[in-house]
Design goal:
The protein has 425 residues and is α/β, with parallel strands linked by helices. Helix content is 32%, strand content 21%. Strands 9-7-5-2-10-1-11-15-19-20 form a ten-stranded mixed β-sheet, sandwiched between helices. Strand 19 and strand 20 form a beta hairpin. Helix 3 crosses helix 4 and helix 3 runs parallel beside helix 5. The protein is globular. The structure holds guanosine-5'-diphosphate (GDP), 6-O-phosphoryl inosine monophosphate (IMO) and magnesium ion (MG). The site of magnesium ion has 5 residues, from loops.
């Protein structure tokens, strides 16, 4: 039996899409369990580049792909994604299964996301503007409309009317445009029809797959440090974006997953606001951004860049029980003389190695660095022996400091640009 989960152990964009695509080859079902259209998971197959937002990254291997109950689904974005995949020759129908229990993103969620950010001004979170926070807020306030609710016209129409009345009040207060109830009702009635062939009792489907010893792969979105509970609150996303979200977000027992694969870049990036102790606001940071093409897959925003932060990733590894690591974008550091890793933070007079909860400590944290020697080129490496000794020493340092074996090393965006270590760095 193989039930595995892939999560990011930094602030998102670690390369989860590439790793899930690789592991999908040996999986039967791939399941997203949280987040929504805020995610942007890139898979490069030959010359073709795919950016997946809602659809699991197993779709390119033709696997059964489940959008679990914990995901917030924007029908418009989903249809655009399906159209894009189909235009590139990828079959989606019969392979995509959307949970009947998933909450639906409405235009008022996106409008409130944008208006809320404008109101916050310099304290803005820097959200993706996809309506994620407001949709999850409605879910927990029990105002949400789930996929299944779209098919009970009376329930749907009544709930939508109450929601739009309330949201219009909020939008007007924020100085934003209000929405027309009849228009949204018509639009979403049409969306419901188009969505129907994909709607599934995903909880039964995924549990049946596990019980029948199918190979199930869970795919997290965002990163553990953007987790609503364990991340840099309030500069986080609105879901449990690590392995902790899997059980509630897919409706499976917490103990069903044995292997948790934590994906980390060989350095760190972050999009949006919030503390980032190892950030490089200098020419080196810009170099990493340019070489690593660090621009958001969803919004195109430049990503902030910095050195590997062991304090943050250790926290992520512990809270999710990560059992092995996939280190990506090692090639981006090719040719650097010295590589730095942050082993602790100086906060005031103290050196801390546990990830602080308070923002002020994180914002004032001075990284304590260990320096290691750089290496030549890694992009053409396919086997462990192809990696320069300095690169292997760097990876061993990460293994030691993080207490977790590095099983995969990615040296380029394509599938074949990967080294499997066999746990023997
Ligand atoms: P995700 O959200 O975690 O799936 O990551 P993104 O797709 O948002 O960002 C990762 C970016 O790095 C994508 O453009 C990938 O194609 C690219 N990428 C993944 N692995 C590697 C790698 O090993 N080397 C390089 N140079 N690029 C990579
Ligand atoms: P993937 O799955 C990187 C960030 C946003 C913002 C914060 C809250 O591609 O790794 P939200 O729209 O979720 O309310 O924004 O979270 N964020 C991501 N950063 N990768 C992502 O997803 C992200 N999804 C959200 O930039 O700082
Ligand atoms: Mg991404």
């Amino acid at each position: 039996m193989s039930v595995r989960c892939v999560i990011g152990v930094q602030w998102g964009d670690e390369g989860k899409g590439k790793i899930v695509d690789l592991l999908a080859e040996e999986s039967d079902v791939v399941v997203r369990y949280q987040g929504g259209g805020n995610a942007g998971h890139t898979v490069v197959v030959g010359r073709e580049k795919f950016v997946l937002h809602l659809i699991p990254s197993g779709i390119l291997h033709g696997r059964a792909c489940v959008v679990g109950n914990g995901v917030v689904v924007d029908p418009e974005q989903l249809f655009a994604e399906i159209a894009d995949l189909e235009a590139k020759g990828v079959k989606v129908k019969g392979r995509l299964f959307i949970s009947d229990r998933a909450n639906v993103v409405f235009p008022y969620h996106k409008a409130l996301d944008r208006a809320g950010e404008l109101k916050r001004g310099i304290t803005k979170i820097g959200t993706t503007g996809r309506g994620i926070g407001p949709c999850y807020a409605d879910k927990y306030a029990r105002n949400g409309i789930r996929v299944i609710d779209l098919y009970d016209l009376k329930v749907f129409a009544d709930r939508l009317r109450v929601n739009i009345e309330e949201k219009n009040y909020l939008l007007a207060g924020l100085g934003a445009e209000t929405l027309d109830y009849e228009h949204v009702l018509r639009e979403y009635t049409a969306h419901a029809k188009r969505l129907k062939p994909f709607v599934t009792d995903s909880v039964t489907m995924v549990n049946d797959a596990i019980d029948n010893k199918k190979r199930v792969l869970f795919e997290a979105a965002q990163g553990a440090l953007l987790n609503i509970d364990h991340g840099t609150y309030p500069y986080v996303t609105s879901s449990n974006s690590d392995a902790t979200g899997l059980s509630s977000g897919a409706g499976v027992p917490p103990a069903c997953v044995r292997d948790v694969i934590g994906v980390a870049k060989a350095y760190t990036t972050r999009v949006g606001s919030g503390p980032f102790p190892t950030e490089l606001n200098d020419a080196l940071g810009e170099k990493i951004r340019q070489v690593g093409a660090e621009f958001g897959s969803t919004t195109g925003r430049p990503r902030r860049t910095g050195w590997f932060d062991l304090v943050g990733s250790r926290h992520a590894i512990r809270t999710s029980g990560v059992t092995e690591l996939a280190i990506t974008k090692l090639d981006v550091l090719d040719g650097f003389d010295t590589i730095r890793v942050c082993t602790g933070y100086k906060v005031g007079k103290k050196t801390v190695t546990a990830f602080p909860a308070d923002l002020t400590s994180l914002e004032n944290a001075k990284p304590v660095y260990k320096d290691v020697r750089g290496w030549g080129a890694t992009t053409s490496a396919r086997k462990l022996v192809d990696l320069p000794p300095e690169a292997r020493a760097y990876l061993r340092l990460l293994e030691r400091e993080l207490g977790c074996v590095v099983s995969m090393v990615s040296v380029g965006p394509e599938r074949r640009q990967t080294v499997l270590t066999g746990g023997k760095l």
